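Methods: holo model generation. Sequences were used as deposited, without trimming of termini or removal of tags, and paired with ligand SMILES retrieved from the corresponding compound records. Each pair was processed once, and we did not select among multiple samples. The sequence and adenosine-5'-triphosphate SMILES for this entry were:
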Amino acid sequence: MARPVALDTGGAAIRCEAVTKSFGKVAAVASITVTLAAGRTTALVGPSGCGKSTILRMIAGLEAPDSGTILLGSDPPKAVARRGGLAMAFQDPSLLPWRDVRANVALGAELARKPADAVDTLIELVGLGGFAGHRPAELSGGMRQRAAIARSLVSAPEILLLDEPFGAVDAMTRSRLNAELPPLWRDRGTTAVLVTHSVEEAVVLSDRVLVLSDRPARIVADIAIDLAPDQRGHDTQAVRALAQDVFSTLELKD
Ligand SMILES: Nc1ncnc2c1ncn2[C@@H]1O[C@H](COP(=O)(O)OP(=O)(O)OP(=O)(O)O)[C@@H](O)[C@H]1O
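and the model returned the structure below.
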């Protein structure tokens, strides 16, 4: 069993106020106003192409809203990113091709100017123990995603943004990661936002699920996920019941 990762952080609340975003004539985000509590995990679910990744990219400071404001704690996203308080793992992991897995994971700590002492523990935890010396080209897509997840966690960020982080990971590994990784950010007080196409995964991983409409995205349901840690398995009755609640709002989204 891997030892606990001994990094500490304080999460920051995420506040979106009347945030809109269009790409040319395509309206991606209608007007989103929401506060995500510090230290909690929120999942965004909704139809494909509705604007979930755009919201996440705006929270990351990678896209600027057309109007409205986003604050992480009391700072704009770019300021938090600059001081190393924000980490992300996106669907298409951008690992440095010339670095091996260990050096890619360590990059998360280097960029945040934090200690890199958890690197090997995290590599073990995401199941890449035998591949620390391998370069991205020698890994499968799912293995690259797992390396990116380890990189996002190594800096113990205040804000963690995950966009379909387990999309290419096989079902068994995904289920194990769903059980083992969230305590790493929950126990440190990280504020996490994740996008997933799996409603069950959203329920298992989160404290709150925001259901979005078809594009342009607006929030059509806000569902609290009040589960004890031992209820957070994919096959528990409580998870199935909450997933059903989310599904029913997805069907009613218009
Ligand atoms: N950089 C961009 N330039 C132009 N259009 C964009 C850009 N990024 C997103 N879009 C458009 O904005 C809309 C929302 O895209 P987004 O990726 O946010 O959706 P999504 O809900 O994350 O989709 P999916 O669930 O399929 O990953 C889409 O119509 C997409 O084509």
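Residues 23, 26, 28, 48-54, 215 surround adenosine-5'-triphosphate (CB under 6 Å).
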